[in-house]
Write a structure and sequence with these properties.
Belongs to the phosphohexose mutase family. This protein has about 450 residues and is an alpha/beta fold. The chain contains 14 helices and 23 strands. The protein has three domains: about 140 residues, Alpha-D-Glucose-1,6-Bisphosphate, Chain A, domain 3 (3-Layer(aba) Sandwich); about 220 residues, Alpha-D-Glucose-1,6-Bisphosphate, Chain A, domain 3 (3-Layer(aba) Sandwich); about 80 residues, Alpha-D-phosphohexomutase, C-terminal domain (TATA-Binding Protein, 2-Layer Sandwich), CATH 3.30.310.50. The longest helix is centred in the first third of the chain and has 17 residues.
């Protein structure tokens, strides 16, 4: 039987084209997705699909649509779109969705992010394993796949997406801002002109300086992965060169957004989480806000200071979204610059987070570096990966070296030290790696603690 275990991951489908993901596989996955929905009691009469700028996207999406048709589902195809535009489509149309993207992965990759109606995620615990198993069966007996007439409706939802976001954050009254935007040749080059520019809607008090807006899935300028500091270098230089108020960097499918201040320094995703949480709590006093366990300690502090209830989550969008649904949280943020909003079907949208930053900055007179200082209270290492032969044994060595620490096991091990410092050590699910995050009240203490832990991990 065909084995798709290397292609169908914990949260999505992602692999090399055509070796792992091709049109035949995409068609089987389309049929399997509809059958899984139907078997789990969901309405599967119609689904919505979109693809990013990768060259392989249109053919794979068409094959998936044919597979869905063969299972008896009609398809609404919105064509080019960002991942959060697909979530918008799933939410506003009330349809299950499939987004063809490999996010920030290199050009030879593509993939699929699946959701139920209302942008509810499909992961390994919520149907993705069933999709994989059913697709494997179909690929092992291609003659069993029936043919149905094409039932594909093409729609453009970009203007609706832009209008929806504009209603959630009003930027019309802010002071004029100059914003350098690095789209990384990804979908930000498609959505930013629609949402922040005057391509569709009336112009805003924003001067957008575009970088790498040309849609190009070969990523000729740099990887569309702003989590890697080397991919922010061009934007940082551009902000300083243009005397801009801030910079924004989007990943390939534009569902994540990173922020650069006017001096060219990154504003941490933890600070953005705290900033947005403060704004959302002003609208909904006492609401719950989710943060993952390696965001800064400043995040729950600021949530509490603004009358909210912080809830700590494991790392990963499926855990965040599950906690948001369980608690009816107004907002959730991760260290990786994924931001989730109740007003956006509990789904993540980098664009909406960027709009909150623009609104907050443009609603007062300080530069971003000064304004963001309220939310940057501690010194953090960022995530540091180490290759290890035995993650469990290495973790136990670290545990033994800190006998006085308070330790919790929500996700890996989090060590809370008496001086207010903390660090988290967790194993990768897919690679022989240990991931370390360290935070301390002062930079020198953070560096010392980081080096002490790494000497044990790598020793």
């Amino acid at each position: 039987m065909t084995d798709l275990s290397q292609l169908v991951k914990a949260y999505d489908v992602r692999g090399v084209v055509p070796e792992q993901l091709n049109e035949t596989v995409a068609r089987a996955l389309g049929t399997a997705f509809v059958e899984m929905l139907r078997e789990s009691g969901d309405d599967a009469e119609k689904i919505v699909i979109a693809h990013d700028m990768r060259e392989t996207g249109p053919a794979l999406a068409a094959a998936f649509a044919a597979g869905a048709n063969s299972a008896g589902a009609a398809v609404v195809h919105i064509g080019l779109g960002s991942t959060d535009e697909l979530y918008y489509a799933s939410g506003v149309l009330g349809l299950p969705g499939a987004m063809f993207t490999a996010s920030h992965n290199p050009a030879q990759y593509n993939g699929i992010k699946l959701c139920r109606a209302g942008a509810k995620p499909v992961g390994q615990d919520s149907g993705l394993v069933i999709v994989r198993q059913r697709a494997e069966q179909l690929l092992s007996d291609l003659d069993s796949v029936g043919e149905m007439p094409d039932a594909i409706e093409h729609r453009d939802l970009l203007s609706g997406y832009a209008e929806h976001l504009r209603k959630l954050v009003d930027l019309s009254g802010i002071r004029p801002l100059k914003v350098v935007v690095d789209a990384g040749n990804g979908m930000g080059g498609y959505t930013v002109p629609a949402v922040l520019g005057d391509q569709i809607l009336p112009g805003l008090p924003l001067e957008i300086v575009p970088m790498y807006f040309e849609l190009d899935g070969s990523f000729p300028n740099h990887e569309a992965n702003p989590l890697d500091p080397k991919n922010l270098v061009d934007l940082q230089a551009g902000v300083v060169e243009h005397g801009a108020d801030l910079g924004l960097a989007f990943d390939g499918d534009a569902d994540r957004c990173f922020v650069i201040d006017e001096k060219g320094n990154p504003v941490s995703p933890s600070a953005v989480t705290a900033l947005v949480a403060k704004r959302e709590l002003a609208k909904s006093p006492g609401a719950t806000v989710i943060h993952n366990l390696i965001t800064s300690a400043a995040v729950p502090e600021i949530i509490k200071e603004n009358g909210g209830t912080p809830v700590r989550s494991r790392v990963g969008h499926s855990f965040i979204k599950a906690e948001m649904a369980r608690t009816n949280a107004i907002f959730g943020g991760e260290h990786s610059a994924h931001y989730y909003f109740r007003d956006f079907w509990f789904a993540d949208t980098g664009m909406l987070a960027a709009m909150h930053v623009l609104a907050a900055l443009g609603g007062q007179d300080e530069p971003l570096s000064a304004f963001a200082a309220e939310f940057e209270r501690y010194s953090a290492s960022g995530e540091i990966n180490s290759t290890v032969a035995d993650a469990k044994a290495t973790t136990e060595k670290v545990r033994a070296a800190f006998p006085d620490a308070e330790i919790d096991t929500l996700d890996g091990l989090t060590f809370q030290l008496k001086d207010g410092s903390w660090f988290n050590l967790r194993a990768s699910n897919t690679e022989p790696l240990l991931r370390l995050n360290v935070e301390a009240p002062k930079p020198d203490r953070m560096a010392a603690l980081r080096d002490e832990v790494l000497s044990i991990v790598r020793g």
